[in-house]
Each structure stands twice: as structure tokens, then as C-alpha cells.
Amino acid sequence: MAKHLCPTSSSRLTIDLGAIRDNYRLIAARIAPAMCSAVVKADAYGLGAARVAPMLRDAGCGIFFVAQLGEAIALREALGAGSEILILNGVDPGGERLCADRGLIPVLNSLSQVERWRTLARERGAALPAALQVDSGMSRLGLDARSVATLADDAAFPREVSLRLLMTHLACADAPGNSANEAQLARFALARARFPGVPASIANSGGSFLPEEFHCDVARPGIALYGVAPSALAEGLRPVATLAARVIQIREIEAGTGVGYGLDYIASERRRLATVGIGYADGWPRHLSNVGAVWHQGTRLPITGRVSMDSLTVDISALPDEALAEGDFVELLGPSQTLDDVAGEAGTIAYEILTQLGRRHERRYVDGAQICA
Ligand SMILES: *Cc1c(COP(=O)(O)O)cnc(C)c1O
User: How many CB atoms lie within 10 A of CB 302?
Assistant: First the structure.
């Protein structure tokens, strides 16, 4: 890999906005005529909502989901007026005014969230927009069937809340054969029947690749936009994030020499090691100690010993002596190693690796081959 141009970070995260755009278009085409929104919570899964969301808006996306009010306020700044911004967790008590004043739409998940929103509407003498989430079987967020009936039977409700979306969330969308998906769809249909004419949404990334009846009016993909296939049904998504880190030091150790904290790795024979400038403070999981690897031009370089806060050590004995020098880059995410590979070795999911990547990397946004300002 080419020598580093930015000497202030030991690692570089490259984010391909063009790949995110292509992934958005692929999902949008798959679910059409349903509308495709974008889930950009947790700072667009760690990739930078202020960069990702305006690009998606320019690509035709009109609806954005975040998890919290603070994220929604920041996103409104980035997008300006015109885009719909919905808050998946709803609004915590006391946040209702701020939410309404910024033109943000809460997802109301419980009768108490509904009640607080209605109170503000009565104060203001005008209906306030909201989405309503129904719990169709995941037992995480949303109204149960009885609460749905209570609201549907309440003649004052439509005067106080202008329902923009009725939504639910699938527990097993990543498992297309799981009968829980059909069961949730059936329970959601009962709720939809109580709110005729209100647009409906059930599909996350996994749901967008399920059969058409799961697409409803609006799909809410997140992880697939960022290049991770939610299930075996998802084909053609382009990877988005590339991560590289630079070699800080190279050494040779003799048989019997220990490496890293706890001397958890002992060389069985003479080894060449490289210490790489990335660690668990950068979101590289400590669970990869003695398990994971980094790569150099297709050669696997196993992690030796424990991952430290700011560095890790890899065995480069498989490379010719001159192949790597101090300052050179090794690959952590890229053609040789995907987010799913790393997540599998670390005992977690790609979502967690992506959202933990941290703030210390040099961040470079590209669109295809072009570097964005
Ligand atoms: C996070 C989230 C999504 C997006 O999920 P992905 O699996 O990343 O596509 C959609 N809907 C809800 C309610 C969510 O919490």
C-alpha cells in the first residue's frame, strides 16, 4: 500500500460514498414501488451521518431514521428543511417541544409517549406529526394489540396526532426461512387494518430482501447501505469501508520470546514481527488477541499476543524481508478481510465492528476513485 500522506493518524478509514449510493439504488430498485428511506442512526453506523445523509438526499432519499433526539437535531442541521427525519426511540420526557420545534417526527412506541405528544398538540392547538410503532412480536419497542385498539377507537387521536407512518420491526429478518417473519407480518396486518390509509413500514435491510409483502410502503434499510449483506438473499451490495493502519516498528524475535501484555504469545521459533498502530481504542476488538489477522497484498499476517489500546503485533514471517517497512500500511478491512470476517472471528456482528470503529482514524471520503473534499 502507498505511503501515508497524513502523519497525524496511524490508521485510515476510507468511506466510499459512491458505494453507499449504489447500495441505496440497488435496494430502492428491489423494493419499488415501495419507498426507500435510510437509517442513519449512530452517526450512519459510524461512517458519518453529516456526509452520508446529504449524499443520499441528493440521490433521491426523502426519509431518514435516527435513534435519538440529539442525532435528529444534528441531522436536521446537515440536511436543512425538506427531508423527513424520524426518531426510532421516540422522545424522552421533556424533549417534545424541541422535537416539534425542529420539525422532527417521533416514533411513538408506548401509550405514555403518545400521551406526551398529544399533550403538546393540545397546548399548541394543532395536530403534530408522528409515526406509530406496533410490537408485532419482538417485544422491544411498540404498542401491543390492545393499545393499538385503544388509540384506533379514540376519536380525538387523529385531531391531535397526524399519523405519517405505521411501523413495526422484524426480529428475524436475517433468517429468511424463519416462520417468525410471517407471524409478525400477520400481526402487523391486524394493526394496519385499524389505521386504514396510513403508510406502513416493516422492512429493515433483511426485510428488504424478503418477498414483496414485506416491503409495504416504506423500507428502512441501514446495514445494507453500508455494504454488509443482511442475509444470504442480499446480493450485489458493494463494500463501503476500508481500514488500513501503518506499521510502527519491525523486529525479529528468537524462539521462546514472549509478545505483548501477559506474554500471551510465545514464539515457537524465530519470527519477524510488525507492530501496527491500531488498537482496541480504535474499535479493533480485543477479542482478536491471538485470533485475528491483518493482511498485506493477500498474505495473512496473524495477530500475535493481545491487542493493546493503541497497537497490535502481527507475525510477518510469511512475507519477504523487504515487503513491509515502517510507515507502510497493512489492511484491516478491504479486499482480503470483510466486516463479516472480522465480526466472526471476534464473536460479534458486523454492525458492532462498524459502529465501534472510533474517531481516531484519518477519515477519507471517496466517490469511486475520486477523493471528496
Ligand atoms: C436499526 C433499525 C433499522 C435498520 O436495521 P438494519 O438491520 O441495519 O437494516 C430499521 N428499523 C429499526 C426500527 C431499527 O431499529
Answer: 16
CA of 222 to the centre of ligand 1 (A): 6
pTM of the model: 0.97
One-character DSSP codes across 125-194: TS-EEEEEEB-SSSSSSSB-HHHHHHHHT-TTHHHHEEEEEEE---SSTT-TT-THHHHHHHHHHHHHHH
**Per CATH, which fold does 241-337 belong to?**
Lyase, Ornithine Decarboxylase; Chain A, domain 1 (2.40.37)
CATH class of 17-226: alpha beta
Catalytic machinery residues:
41, 261
Atom 6 of ligand 1: nearest residue by CA position: 222
pLDDT in tens, 248-285: 999 999 999 999 999 999 999 999 999 999 999 999 99
Q: Tell me: the pLDDT tens digits for 100-150?
A: 999 999 999 999 999 999 999 999 999 999 999 999 999 999 999 999 999
